[in-house]
Structure formats: structure tokens, C-alpha cells
Amino acid sequence: MRLERSVRESAIFQFARYAAFVLGAVAVTPASAAWDQDGQAEWAQRYDADARLTVSRSTTPILSAHTVAATEAAIERLREIAADGGWPQVPAGQQLRLGSNSPVVSALRRRLVISGDIGAETGASPVFDSYVEAAVRRFQARHGIIPTGVVNQQTVQALNVPAETRLKQLETNLVRLRSFSHGLGNRYVTANIPAASVETVENGEVVTHHMAGVGKIDRQSPVMQTKAIQVNFNPFWTVPASVIRKDLIPKMQADPNYLNANHIRVYSKDNQELQPEQINWRSLDALNFRFRQDIGGDFNSLGVVRIDIANPYGVYMHDTPAKGVFGDDFRFVSSGCIRLQNVRDYVAWLLKETPGWDRDHIDEVIASGERVDVKITPAVPVYWVYITAWAAPDGVTQFRDDIYQRDGLGLRSAGADSPASTVVQAARPMRGEGQFPSDDDSYFEERSR
Predict the structure, then answer these.
(1) Is 361 one of the annotated active-site residues of the chain?
(2) Residues 66, 182, 318, 361: which is the catalytic one?
(3) How does pLDDT run across 166-193, given as a tens digit for each residue?
(4) 337 belongs to the catalytic site
(5) Which of 200, 259, 366, 380 has its CA 20 to 30 A from that of 166?
(6) CA distance 99 to 122
């Protein structure tokens, strides 16, 4: 009887291990999304305790001595892999998913074994089973790709970057990381542009994570060190000259009701309100006027909050009514400013030491619809950085596309070839016009779809 129970318990244990191994990889799907009171997507995530499959959200700041040390260790591992011949290429041309049966799956397995995303004990079968799916999810999570477990064009492109190139990418970024490893302050914000993500840091640990929308390839977000100095609740948005020229004039030529539909008012230099029909839209006459969008989180391109950061580029951080961008792989969509997911959590953290501004009060002010400006006391250091490769103390190495082509390695993103992006140009963030000087031309594109 004792032997029978032991065998039964062993079988149950083995099955539990198998189930955990198969199901434990990061799973992020639209069906698992919850929505907060601000209408922003909160993506449910499932993680397994097995370190081979887990890419959990690290509490170690990307700018820290711990990340530097972890990246140095990752470089040594990659040097060994490169010295042994690197990893095989995965043939492109077919989409692989659970149930696929192809020799390409065997090549995929070998590739994932070498990079540590799957164990060698899972074999070399040509069948795309749940072990491979879990490993693909892990790989995708490490490369900033939504972890679907399906091997698509973007995933194949990331898989086929040679080990030697990934090694150079880590070495290049180690220099950047070392320059930011000390003296950042007890409380600070890091916006990593290639990862299109923002984190708040306090006492050496990440407090909040935020997906972000950052500058387009031809309207790049700047690398800078600055401070968050003020929060504008329920802000107006004044359309910058660049957006008037490139977007507003063509929109009005196509639809004379466009301004009214988007709650945008026209003002003369004397601050007198005009009617849209008083402007010659077949010329550049519109550049002589000021266009201001009314307050309103459902339609205002700044959403319900704008965070003022001191800088010479005319950029800032803000909410957006276009929340769908946070569920995309390719989030290079703005004119240089940074849009924030879960902006209320971010603002609550910024105002944590500002008397009288707890989360309840923040929600009340937003709900009131009134324009309110709050000075952040004390101002919080903010770092906009360009880090495309790093490692965490848990051994997980992360890579992102060199979207602005600053690593000098010729890496290109599959997303960079999409209609959402444009040809890479030598561009700098634009100084805007009026009260809110920069973002956001892509807002008009989204509103017209």
C-alpha cells in the first residue's frame, strides 16, 4: 500500500511539474486584459517558477550597478556562445505555431537551446509542441515582442540576429549603462526609448512599470537628463506648427468639419476666436493662427494629464486617449513626447511627497474636468535613455530593436518597415509652438481611422 501511494504521488508530482513547465511561460493575450477606471489596458500575466521559462518583471532598475554587473556576466556567456560557433539560422517563410510539423521546428529548437530559452532535454523533434511554444514566448518576452508563442516574421528576424552581433550590442550598451550606474538619486524616473517603457525607482527598486509610446523614427525622442517639475491636470493642447502644416491643413482640405469634430478652436494673434471658414485652407494661411483643442480626456491628444519636464526640446510626458498603442509591439508613434500607460499611477508616484496629492485627490481633480496645475515638490529626476540590450540579476538578457540606428550594427526592426513608420532620417525632436509645444501628429491619424 505504501509503495502504491508513493508511485501515485510521484506520478502526480511529475504531472504537476509538466503542467507548470508547459503552462508557466509569460502569457499576455487580449482576452486576458482587464481595464482600469481610466480605460487603460492592464495585461494579465502568468509566470512559472521554472527559471528556464520565466521572464518576470524585474524590480532591479535598468540604470543601476546591479544591471551593469548582470550585463557584464551576460557578455561573458555570449562570448562563449560566439566562440563555439553561435546559433543556427531559423529558415524564414512559414509561420510556426503549436501543432506545426516541420524540419524548421528542429532548427528552432536548436536555436532556443543555445540561447537558454529551452532545455536540451526536450529533444529535437520537428513537432512544435507546448515546450517549444513556452520557449518561444520566453524568447519573445526577452526581445520586446508580445509573447504569443507564434513564430512570425518579427520573431524570426530576432532569432536570426547572429550571436556575434548580439554580443557587440551588449558591449555597446554596457558603456551606456556604466555612465548611469551611480548618483541618480533616491527617487527617479527612467524612460528607455528603444524599449518604449518607463519605470519609477525608489530606494533602489522599481516601484511602477509603464508601457509607453515614444518618438517616431523621423521625430525622435531625445536622450536627456532632466526633472519632472509640474503636473497639468485636464490640459488644453495647442497644435504645433509642424502638425498644422503636415496634418491639420490636409485634414481640413479633405473634411471642412474636421476642426469642429475634434473640438479644436481657432484663435488670432489677438486671441480672438475665429471660425474655420475664415481661413484659406488651400494655402499655408493656417500657420498664422493658433489652434487649441478643448479639455477632454476622450478626445484631447494629451488625455487627462500632462507632465512638464524641463528641457530645450519642447517635449514632455502625457496621457493619451489612444490607449490601443500600449498593446502593440511597435510603439514609436509620437512626435518626440512620451505617452504613458497607467498615467494615474505614474502621477500618484510623482506627487507622493507633494502634500495633499494622494491618489483619491488626483482622481477627484481629473473627474472634475477643471484645469489644475500642480508643482512637484521636490522635483523628480528624469532620465530619457537609449538602451537596446541589458541583463537582469536573474540571468535574463533583454534585447530591443535599434530603432534609431544608434548602435552602429545595422540592425533593423520588422516594425520599422510597417506603415506606422517612415524611412530613417537624421532628425531631432522638434520645438513646438504655443502653450504645448510638441506632440502629437499621429493623434490625427488615429482619430481619422
Answers:
(1) no
(2) 318
(3) 999 999 999 999 999 889 999 999 999 9
(4) yes
(5) 200
(6) 16
